[in-house]
Amino acid sequence: GRGIGKNSKGNVKIREFGKKSFVSDDVVVVKKEKKKDELKKSGDRDNKHNQESRNSEKSEKQQANKRSRESERREDNYNYNVPWLRSHIRVRIISKELKSGRLYLKKGEVVDVVGPTMCDISMDESGELIQGVDQDLLETALPRRGGPVLVLYGRHKGVYGNLVDRDLDRETGVVRDADTHELVNVKLEQIAEYIGDPSYLGY
């Protein structure tokens, strides 16, 4: 249009300047802090979830280990109330009443298991056959170190091998499996000298 007023210089062009958007530094800072808070809360939720997950897994593992230990203790704490007799193991008579006490502390071989807790025994010294002897009147007999033994009960039941070591104070022993050569720890009451053919046991 045409210039208006003093010192006008003919036609002039009118330019419209776009409105410049303006955001104060304070607003930017607030937005950044808000974003940080959101990220922090999200991170806290993730960390809490991960921690809960780890705690849950840890608790499950502890429970499983506890059950395993309790199971092992139950297996190893068997006593003479459970059947442990096997043919071809050596035993010692601990009853003073059996045969009027003349066999007290004598050793013999179990030649036949006639019931869950009943057996026939061939005495070592005389060869006499004693029939129908209850296991409560017996205890297991052990060989010297290096001698053959059979694990009668517990989690290593059925293992046949050699007696590597024994601790009479702790009443524990170490047996080397004849097949795998693995060393297993047992209580002395769990094992007996085995004088039969290992093939009877699958060895």
From TrEMBL:
Region (Disordered) residue spans: 33-75
InterPro entries registered for this protein in UniProt: Spp2-like (IPR045166)
Entry superkingdom: Eukaryota
A GO biological-process term: mRNA splicing, via spliceosome
Record PANTHER family: G PATCH AND KOW-CONTAINING, G-PATCH DOMAIN AND KOW MOTIFS-CONTAINING PROTEIN
Name assigned to this protein: KOW domain-containing protein
Species, as recorded: Citrus sinensis
